[in-house]
Amino acid sequence: MPASPPYDAIILGAGAAGMMCAAVAGQRGRRVLLIDHADRPGKKILISGGGRCNFTNLGTAPDRFLSANPHFAKSALGRYTAADFIALVDSYRIAWHEKTLGQLFCDGAARQIVEMLVGECDKGAVEFALGRPVTAVEHDGMAFRVGIDGRIVTAAALVVATGGPSIPKMGATGFAYQLAKQFGLKLIEPRPALVPLTLAGDDALFRELSGVAAPVVARHGKVAFREAALFTHRGLSGPAILQVSSYWRHGEAIDVNFLPDQPSGWLRAAKRAQPRTTLARALAIQLPDRLATTLAERLALAGELANLADRRLEEAERRLAAWRFTPNGTEGYAKAEVTAGGISTAELSSQTMQAKRVPNLYVVGEAVDVTGWLGGYNFQWAWASGWAAGQSL
Ligand code: FDA
């Protein structure tokens, strides 16, 4: 089989990290081939942020990322910042706005971000090979050899930017892990993250509230997120829950504060002010009716507040401020916005993303064991890690 002329770098995966890496390397004069099995680049970018792409977060900081090594992401995030990406977006005159909590979205469509990245790749004369499944990857001692379409392409360097297995119907695969195994790189057990949690047993009663949302503080261990929670026909979702899901492990509980703005003693105060009201009605001032009724039923405090002992009201307050759910699982990769875990950071240089034990092999983006919070952090990691590798190729 005839071999194509060698490239400086072959990048597997034309997603967020792969395109950033290709553009940077190409613009530095490297000859880059960018391969994807999908027929168009950046499919996840296109559906991200409800079609408007939450492309970064103004609050980007290393403590908003999960990893077995919490220090690993610092270097890349410090060298390619949210401000750098915003400057790029501005240079393409893409209008954007801050929605909430530092989250930046396109005013128009996510397609603009993909077009911008393709434009940056074009500036670097990056060659795209789309709709091409990769059949084999080898290193022959001199170069990486990649089989696509019955032909072999070769390059001095290989970048794995194939992401994680979240949302397989978008073309996501665990290919990066297969390559990690092939090249002897350790994995941190991958798991669905930013994913709805499912409820069973006693908690399953809450599934009757499907569609009800409320602003809460959801807590897991030391982390807490003040955002909306949403009851679903399978359990719990909404931003607050998705955030804690990344920290949650099977068998663990999460706590939800349904009334984060109520001062201690508020229920006793309500009893003095409105002795004839019921707990359900007192709760319904703050919460959606159906949720108020269900919580009151589960607390088994029927009747007028006047007839309920202060001690029982204090206990109810405590439970409402830390309602314990023990999910029995998650909705899995089919519904997970990202994959936590992945190729161990211990295998990679934090400066360049190059594998320490396999020269010229790089891993970027979600394939690496670095996972951001909800809110543009995962794209910022994709841009920053792609940029770091692109500078090194
Ligand atoms: P990415 O998944 O972008 O790219 C990987 C590429 O590799 C894909 O193009 C895929 O086709 C290709 N590939 C996979 N296997 C292959 C194989 N075997 N051979 C060849 N190619 C292969 N984040 C955020 O910060 N803000 C947001 O608004 C959102 N919104 C959002 C919505 C939804 C529905 C999802 C699923 C995810 C998000 N995310 C997000 C997360 C974000 O999309 C994700 O973290 C990044 O896209 C990761 O970038 P990567 O380049 O690492 O992978």
- Determine the CATH topology of the largest domain: FAD/NAD(P)-binding domain
CATH superfamily of the largest domain: FAD/NAD(P)-binding domain
Percentage of residues assigned to helices: 25-40%
Strand residue percentage: 15-25%
Q: Name the shape in a single word.
A: elongated
Structural class: alpha+beta
**What is the rounded distance between the termini?**
27 Å
CATH architecture of the largest domain: 3-Layer(bba) Sandwich
Number of strands: 21
What is the number of helical segments per DSSP (H or I, 4+ residues)?
A: 12
C-alpha Rg (nearest Å) = 24 Å
CATH class of the largest domain: Alpha Beta
Number of domains: 2
Low-confidence stretches: none
The bound ligands are: dihydroflavine-adenine dinucleotide
Give an overview in words.
There is one protein chain. The protein has about 400 residues and is of the alpha+beta class. It folds into two domains: about 5-190 and about 340-390, FAD/NAD(P)-binding domain, CATH 3.50.50.60; about 195-330, Beta Barrel (Elongation Factor Tu (Ef-tu), domain 3), CATH 2.40.30. It contains twelve helices and 21 strands. It has helices at about 15-25, 45, 75-80, 80-90, 110-125, 175-180, 240-245, 265-275, 280-285, 290-300, 310-320, 375-390; strands spanning about 5-10, 30-35, 55, 65, 95-100, 105, 125-130, 135-140, 145-150, 150-160, 185-195, 195-200, 215-220, 225-230, 235, 255, 325, 330, 340-345, 360-365, 370. β1 (about 5-10), α1 (about 15-25) and β2 (about 30-35) form a beta-alpha-beta unit. The mean pLDDT is about 95. Dihydroflavine-adenine dinucleotide binds near residues 43 and 161.
